[in-house]
Specification:
The protein is an alpha/beta fold. The protein has one domain: Alpha-Beta Barrel (TIM Barrel). The chain has 17 helices and 12 strands. The strands form 2 sheets. Strands 1, 2, 3, 4, 5, 6, 7, 8, 9 and 12 form a 10-stranded parallel β-sheet that branches. The longest helix has 15 residues. It is globular and about 60 Å long. The chain binds iron/sulfur cluster (SF4). One of its GO terms (biological process) is biotin biosynthetic process. InterPro entries: Aldolase_TIM, BATS_dom, Biotin_synth/BioAB, Biotin_synthase, Elp3/MiaA/NifB-like_rSAM, rSAM, rSAM_sf. Belongs to the radical SAM superfamily. Biotin synthase family. Keywords: 2Fe-2S, 4Fe-4S, Biotin biosynthesis, Iron, Iron-sulfur, Metal-binding, S-adenosyl-L-methionine, Transferase. This is biotin synthase.
Length: 432
């Protein structure tokens, strides 16, 4: 056994793996310098010098400090991707990526004023986007059928509303019927309809909704630069209503809004310190749209997206992290790095609400090249409280559970596939 291997093993076995690359590198340097001399003892790094996020890598925690999240985010990229990939393998099969389809069921005319969005009525004169009516039930159902045939396992419906309270009962009933019928196709069903009351959330749950999307967009401090028609607290209240109704929470954000790195950290910190981690965190890269106040914003680099994905993966180990809008001009290499760092979902189809998206055939070719497989519907969402499977079984709302952290040694030896992680990590039947 080489001296380096012995030194590596000694470090890993003594619980010092968290010292990571630095300690191994020092050990290697020592080894190289002394290869013709007597072996020298290597001083182990004091445990207190190991950051908690590395010492407890893979722990499911909701007590992250913003400083800790910043430390994760600011880790040198390749080291961060390595850590994130290690966490990803504790809980997920890294070859599985879910394909989702997003349909705008009610386009334009939105009374909110999100500065990045083409659907706000505030600048419809500049964008030229006309308000449309809520789509017919049958048209939406047919779109879901097509999505299922092309391999999507999750169907998301977005309405440009402040919330269902702004529309009449007939439209709301139609949306509930859409949820019910598409759920009957065996697909996961997600909606994004604006702010919800607890009663509306309960109705969606009864209709069979799998998940509700409500993005926080950015940090609390930067939020007023994104919209002034609602408050960050309003978003949090809807997320709480969704959680209480027993629906999976889907909440993420957008990069490229003019925010700084501290705002990306702030967003991820908010998500990771909710009472339970969202089951789903979409990370969008702004697609700047002509006529909106953010039309001149530069698109962030793919590497920026990878850094956000990796940070989200480290701090929310069991969550499905979704590569969402803004994938169209990302290279395959950027996307591959994002999958390595823990992204396990994409949106497919030629359109995402009102913006163009990647071609399905090209995505399939990318999956083939990278050895990825489509993640089936209703794999247990290991985070949060209720799961869709519990819903199917009629188990009703349950208490929130956050699993115990896997031991670091177990985690490091996870060796590919979600079965490498401890079974108790998954709520409601395990991830395997
Ligand atoms: S992002 Fe949603 S809420 Fe904001 S303007 Fe667009 S459709 Fe309305």
């Amino acid at each position: 056994m080489s001296q380096l291997l012995r030194l590596s093993r000694a470090l890993l076995c003594s619980g010092q793996q968290a010292a990571g690359v630095g300690a191994l590198q020092r050990a290697f340097n020592t080894s190289s310098r002394t290869q013709h001399a007597e072996p020298q003892p290597v001083a182990a790094e004091a445990p207190s010098s190991v950051p908690r996020w590395i010492a407890e890598l893979g722990a499911v925690r909701t007590d992250w400090t913003r400083e800790e999240v910043a430390e994760v985010y600011n880790t040198p990229l390749l080291e961060l991707v390595f850590r994130a990939a290690s966490v990803h393998r504790m809980y997920n099969d890294p070859s599985m990526v879910q394909r989702c389809t997003l349909l705008s069921i009610k386009t334009g005319g939105c009374p909110e004023n999100c500065n990045y969005c083409s659907q706000s009525s505030s600048w419809s004169k500049d964008t030229g986007l006309k308000a449309e009516k809520l789509m017919d039930l049958e048209d939406v159902y047919q779109a879901a059928l097509r999505a299922r045939e092309s391999g999507s396992t999750r169907f998301c419906m977005g309405a440009a509303w402040r919330g269902p309270s702004q529309v009449g009962n007939r439209q709301w009933e139609r949306v509930l019927e859409m949820v019910k019928r598409i759920r009957g196709l065996g697909m996961e069903v997600c909606t994004t309809l604006g702010m919800l009351t607890p009663e509306q959330a309960a109705q969606l749950r009864t209709a069979g909704l799998t998940a509700y999307n409500h993005n926080l967009d950015t940090s609390p401090e930067y939020y007023p630069k994104v919209t002034t028609s609602r408050k960050y607290e309003d978003r949090l209240a809807t997320l709480e209503a969704v959680r209480q109704a027993g629906i999976s929470v889907c909440a993420g954000g957008i990069i490229g809004l003019g925010e700084g790195p501290q705002d990306r950290v702030g967003l991820i910190h908010q998500l990771a310190t909710l009472p339970a981690h969202p089951e789903s965190v979409p990370i969008n890269r702004l697609v700047a749209i002509k006529g909106t106040p953010m039309e001149g914003n530069e698109a962030p680099e793919g590497i920026d997206l990878v850094r956000c994905v990796a940070t989200a993966r480290v701090v929310m180990p069991r969550t499905v992290v979704r590569l969402s809008a803004g994938r169209l001009d990302l290279s395959r290499a950027d996307q591959a790095l994002a999958f390595l760092a823990g992204a396990n979902s994409i949106f497919d189809g030629d359109k995402l609400l009102t913006t163009p998206n990647n071609d399905r055939n090209e995505d399939q070719a990318m999956f083939d090249t990278l050895g990825l497989r489509s993640r089936p519907a209703f794999m247990n969402y290991p985070a949060g409280n209720d799961t869709s499977r519990e819903f199917e079984a009629g188990a009703g709302a349950g208490a929130g559970v956050q699993a115990e952290a896997p031991k670091a040694a177990e985690a490091m030896g996870g060796g590919g596939g979600c079965c490498g992680g401890p079974k108790k990590a998954a709520v409601g039947g395990g991830c395997c």
